[in-house]
Amino acid sequence: MDTVLIEGDITAQRVDAIVNAANSSLLGGGGVDGAIHRRGGPAILAECRALRASRYGRGLPTGQAVATTAGELPARWVVHTVGPVFSPREDRSALLRDCYANSLRIADELGAARVAFPLISAGIYGWPVEDAVTQALTVLHAATPAHVVEARVVLFGADTYATAVRVAAGLS
Q1: What is the DSSP string of 72-107?
Q2: CA-CA distance, 128 to 133, in Å (whole number)?
Q3: Could you list the active site residues?
Q4: Span 2-171 CATH architecture
Q5: Residue 158 host element (H or E)
Q6: Neighbouring-strand partners of residue 80
Q7: One Pfam family this chain carries (predicted)?
Q8: Confidence tier at 172 by pLDDT (50, 70, 90)
Q9: In terms of DSSP bridges, do strands 77-82 and 65-69 run parallel, antiparallel, or are they unpaired?
């Protein structure tokens, strides 16, 4: 599987599955989550409400992933995952890696060939960008999915992209 870094808007990615850095309610929010719900339209929210009414009455647990339609996005599916809030006192990096691994597994089970990931937890959840990139690339570089041939990490903003490129070069 190829892993590529792209600067841009995740909602504009023409892929099979877009990963959403969701909150546990699955009902939309700010940042990536809000952008995906706004651009994808009401079909995504309708499926998220159905998931809350059935399997996830208490919300989607941190590190887990679940798929819905992509609505009006240029993709077939949205894979929602809940990243951990960063804590300087508690190592939650395993939960962050679980977000990538579980999202990739769900996308692969759906038969997705191309998947776009945001930098999970690096926004309002406060995860330091350098470490968020390291956690993402550690999982994606080690993965051997059956169907996914490309994982895109879509980075919002030139500074975040430049940091990701620097971190990726150091991991090579």
Answers
A1: TSSSSEEEEEEPPPP-SSS--HHHHHHHHHHHHHHH
A2: 9
A3: 33
A4: 3-Layer(aba) Sandwich (3.40)
A5: helix 158-171
A6: 20, 66
A7: Macro
A8: confident
A9: antiparallel
**pLDDT class of 27 with cuts at 50, 70, 90:** very high
Angle (nearest 5°) at CA 8 between 3 and 11: 95
**Which one-letter amino acid corresponds to residue 1?**
M
- Whether the CA torsion 8, 10, 11, 15 is positive or negative: it is positive
* pLDDT at res. 143: 98
Domain boundaries of the chain, sorted by first residue: 2-171
DSSP 3-state of 59:
coil
Q: What does the chain come to in residues?
A: 172
Instruction: Using DSSP bridges, classify how beta strands 77-82 and 114-117 pair: parallel, antiparallel or unpaired.
Output: unpaired
Report how far apart the first and last C-alpha atoms of the chain are (Å, whole number).
15
The predicted-structure confidence for 51-88, as pLDDT tens digits, reads as follows 999 999 999 999 999 999 999 999 999 999 999 999 99
